[in-house]
Design brief:
This protein is an alpha+beta fold and 463 residues long. It folds into two domains: 110 residues, Ubiquitin-like (UB roll) (Roll), CATH 3.10.20.70; 275 residues, 2-Layer Sandwich (Creatine Kinase, Chain A, domain 2), CATH 3.30.590.10. Helix content is 32%, strand content 17%. The chain contains twelve helices and 14 strands.
Length: 463
């Protein structure tokens, strides 16, 4: 029996893929939870058509897991509902072959729906789709791209317990220098990155510029702009999995912690966003270059005033907050500016037709679906209330602007701000808001009760 897929996926897509790829033996079927972690199953080739015909039953608790993959009962997704099944359906157009795996496998993304076909609203992908739909009802279509920063590290930590930059996979050469923008530094990792680019190509992802970033072992991959912001978020999460898989195959660790080394800058996930009308015109573009219109200014105003209650989305974990240190290339105040990398909201220089906002607070450990949903809601809030962004920051944006709205200074404050935020509840939807804040509250409790190595270092022999 073939059911109607609420995601819009079709059996014909699966049949065509199987015919074109007789070599593929199995498929990873993947959804992403509140933390952006890929969860799902590996199914055999003969199971793919049944997945497209009738979806796949999964326990509702799969969307209520913490960072360790354990149940968080406070989400209300487990015994409150008997941990019953929901049905996951393939995301149309997401069926791809994986590069460099043996035996050959494919991958398909999926989203979760209630058994009656309604969206299961604790699925982060649906939170973003809801925001996209609100704009579409007004004839507007958000476009964008994410930047992916990450570290390549040795699999074992050094004698001091700290992470060690990976040796070049080409010849084993060691480099502990920052070497920002070094092309020679990139050459030593080219065998790995060649596999990453090949994997991205098979996945339909246009991975573009590769950069040696501002710390030993840190890199950045930029992604091609997408007219559909949902595709931009899909690209980011898929590329993380591709980088992690090929790093492991080459004997090193791809690290997507926000701040793995206290001595250097952390890893961000800058989000570039613009807005198109029905004709494909970018409505952020001003009539006279440099004289910014109210559309983009009010958008930044909304993002500024909602940033404080949204910080848990952009910095969800304990380690996320180590990234926010002055002069460490992470914004610590909701400032805005033009061609200024020290601000939280940047209008990049370049072609006026590509006018956009670069939203810089999120770390690479954040969930791009939730980041994009929150940013879009912030833009809408700015438009609805005609919020002026205030004066432009023209100098050092790492200093608190005197007129800037307050933002939390630590993880616990961010959790409390998110819990009580009517804006965030509206941005994510009530169920996603409850699920996300419950999961992060449980993670906070886990970290708070853990006696860390720094506790022993500071206090064991001194107090």
């Amino acid at each position: 029996m073939t059911l109607t897929s609420p995601s819009g996926s079709t059996v014909a897509e699966a049949e065509a893929f199987l015919a074109a790829h007789p070599e593929i033996e199995a498929f990873d079927i993947v959804l992403h939870d509140a933390n952006g972690i890929g969860r799902g199953k590996i199914i055999r080739r003969h199971e793919l058509l049944s997945f497209y015909k009738g979806g796949r039953h999964l326990p509702i608790s799969i969307l209520g897991l913490d960072i360790c993959g354990e149940d968080v009962h406070e989400t209300g997704l487990i015994w409150d509902q008997g941990d019953g099944d929901r049905r996951a359906w393939p995301v149309p157009g997401s069926l791809v072959a994986l590069h460099g795996v043996s035996p050959p496998r494919g991958e398909v993304l999926m989203s979760v729906y209630d058994l009656d076909g309604q969206r299961m609203t604790s699925d982060p992908r649906h939170a973003l789709q809801r925001q996209v739909d609100l704009f579409a009802a007004e004839g507007l279509y958000p476009a964008g791209a994410f930047e992916l920063e990450f570290f390549l590290l040795e699999n074992e930590r050094g004698p001091d317990g700290k992470m060690v930059p990976a040796r070049d996979v080409l010849d084993g050469r060691r480099n502990r220098k920052t070497d920002v923008y070094s092309v020679d530094q990139l050459h030593g990792m080219l065998p790995l990155f060649n596999d990453v680019y090949a994997g991205a190509k098979l996945a339909g992802i246009k991975a573009e510029t590769l950069i040696s970033e501002f710390a030993p072992g840190q890199y950045e991959l930029t992604l091609h702009y997408r007219e559909n912001v949902m595709q931009a978020a899909d690209d980011l999460l898929r590329l993380k999995r591709i980088v992690r898989m090929h790093a492991r195959a080459h004997g090193v660790t791809a690290c997507f912690m926000a701040k793995p080394n206290e001595d250097y800058a952390g890893s961000g996930m800058h989000f570039h966003v613009s807005m198109m009308d029905k004709t494909g015109r970018n409505i952020f573009v001003e009539k006279v270059e440099g004289q910014y219109n109210d559309v983009i200014l009010n958008a930044m105003g909304g993002l500024r005033v909602t940033m404080g209650e949204s910080m848990l989305i952009f910095a969800p974990h304990s380690n996320s907050w180590r990234r926010f240190v002055g002069q460490s290339y992470a914004p610590i105040s909701p400032t805005w500016g033009v061609n200024n990398r020290s601000v939280a909201l940047r209008i990049p220089a370049g072609d006026i037709k590509a006018r956009r906002i670069e939203h810089r607070p999120a770390g690479v450990d954040a969930n791009p679906y939730l980041v994009a949903a929150t940013v879009l809601a912030g833009i809408r809030h700015g438009w609805q209330n005609k919020i002026d962004p205030g004066p432009e920051t023209t100098g050092n944006g790492y200093q608190d602007a005197p007129d800037a709205p307050a933002i939390p200074v630590d993880w616990r404050s961010a959790i409390e701000a998110a819990k009580g935020s009517a804006f965030l509840k509206d941005a994510l939807g009530e169920n996603m808001h409850r699920t996300f804040t419950a999961i992060l509250s449980a993670e906070y409790a886990r970290v708070a009760r853990t006696v860390s190595e720094v506790d022993f270092d500071l206090y064991l022999y001194t107090v």
